[in-house]
Amino acid sequence: MISTLSKNIIDFVAANWVYRLFGIAMWMLSGGFIVFLYIAYGWQKSALAITGLAIGVVFFRCQFGFSYTWRVLFTRGDGTGLRAQMLWIALAALPFAWLSGNIGGGDVYAVMNVRPLTTGIAVGALLFGVGMQLGGACTSGSIVGAGQGGTVPFISIAGFIAGAIVAAEQAEFWQELPAATSFSFYGEWGIWGALAIIAMGIVVILASLTLPLPSNSSAPPPKRMSLYVGAIILALLSIILLALAKQPWGIINGLSILGAKTLFILGYEDIEFWDYWSRFATGSDALHSGWFEGTQLVTTVSMLLGVVVAAVAAGKFSLSFGGGKRLLLSLSGGVIMGYGAQISYGCNIGSYISALSSGSAHGWLWLFFAFVGTAIGVGARRLVGLDK
Fold this sequence. Notes:
mainly alpha, 17 helices, 68% helix, globular
């Protein structure tokens, strides 16, 4: 009965006139969101929303992602995705160093994403790698999937928020574990630090070209030029976002505040006294401010809208419903990802792309343990029957 109902809903939405009306509604909603932000918060928030919309379009059109590209890196020796991600970081390094005030003019923006080398980063990145393989997508990938009409990615996002809230409540525990001091390549070495980040990215790119193909593979991995095009555009958009927001692109804090605000409104007032709020300049006042007072929820919502608009324009928006097993794994993977991202200062965007673009050494620590988690997650997928 449920499958029949799902099919009827899909057929209804797929009807030509309904599809067109939906597309018009999404354009109107996107435009209305931009206007609302301009009226309520000013032009910077409105410009951030436009940037977020563009990010969503690029992620969809170029099929840019992390979970699948990392999985085929381990299973097929296909390093295309990793090379595209390193290209993004290398292109953003010098502009980020300039905007952070460490070379030339600029201001101290990106320093906000320079973190200490903590136990939480190692554990959290490992958990994130496992979670995104079980769930089938990383945080940004779940947003892209949800924007194309998938219900499973929405379940993953809900799990992500839940896991992040649980980890936020336990922030004091993770803050007390052993940690090494932070290290900023830009702050310590200036332009040479930016060149060092670029050089390390090139080394990773070259190393990925030497990966052996699996014994059962008779053909080389497919080349996906769209990933490189996406990396170039995303590097530009991340620079624009940094200049507008005065902090690098991130997702975790926006979703965490969304969950925390919801619990607070529902009457869970103890959340106001969590140590978690010590990482914010405004502290627990973030609970009482407007929903879009911060930058991360603005870019996350606008990215989702951008994916929807792009998917509808391409005729690729389609409601899809997963089975019970797929939903359970997506929820579980989301919870694991959310918990891991919270204790490691971010997901693959905040603690990998943005961290390395900002010249923070913790990005390399996060990447290493996320790879370890991915290797475990790939094995776990076989155990639960997702892969053969």
